[in-house]
Amino acid sequence: MLAIFDKNVAKSPEALQNQDGGSVCALKDRFLPNHFSSLYPGAVVTNLGSSGFIACSLEKQNPLLPRLFAVVDDMFCIFQGHIENIQILKQQYGLTKTATEVTIVIEAYRTLRDRGPYPADQVVRDFHGKFAFMLYDCSTKNVFLAADVDGSVPLFWGTDAEGHLVVSDDVETVKKGCGKSFAPFPKGCFFTSSGGLRSYEFPLNELKPVPRVDSSGQVCGVTFKVDSETKKEGTMPRVGSVQNWSKQI
């Protein structure tokens, strides 16, 4: 799976943006989507207009951590892995017995967007299992990414030469688009366009960037660790219109 989001849609954490920049512009002339399609000829590539691209392939996948792709009401979502408490979540969100993990993620996001009763960290924390997912909502231009607490599903992200956000489970694809500005997506964390990167495992704590060093001893991107000594100033009030709340997820 691959997603490239314009920097005006998803501003990556400043620490992830390497001073040297990425090696290419991932969006120019569909460079990275075309590269992905060459690796996975059967991939479905969706043009999100000025917001970027999202692509999914069912080739070369781990049968124990399958990929699912769905589009519902202009919400595009790719899910990889499995959710252990899927039956409970189907009941919680009022879904049919045939609903899959990707459907649950979309419905959970819709609940958040339309002023559901729980904060975003609680919604993601309710997913028990091995998973990673990426979602884009065309109606609000909001990005929603997350990975489980153990990092069971490989997921990498970084920024290209122009600061656009690149996310994929294929590390070589991320490297090609981001150069040294790439890193594993943080375990137990989620990212949204407006809220940035946060830990859902420890929602009251700040995240601090820690430089990564590659095998040659050079700094290569950053990882983000929970800062046990720094607490967030406060929680986000759930007030305002539906449209305002969708911008605060």
From TrEMBL:
Pfam families in alphabetical order = DUF3700
For this protein, the record's InterPro entries field holds: DUF3700, Ntn_hydrolases_N, TSJT1-like
Q: What's the protein here called?
A: Stem-specific protein TSJT1
- What are the residue boundaries of the DUF3700 domain, all occurrences included? 2-226
Q: Which CDD domains match?
A: Wali7
Q: Which PANTHER family match?
A: ALUMINUM INDUCED PROTEIN WITH YGL AND LRDR MOTIFS
Q: Which SMART domains match?
A: DUF3700
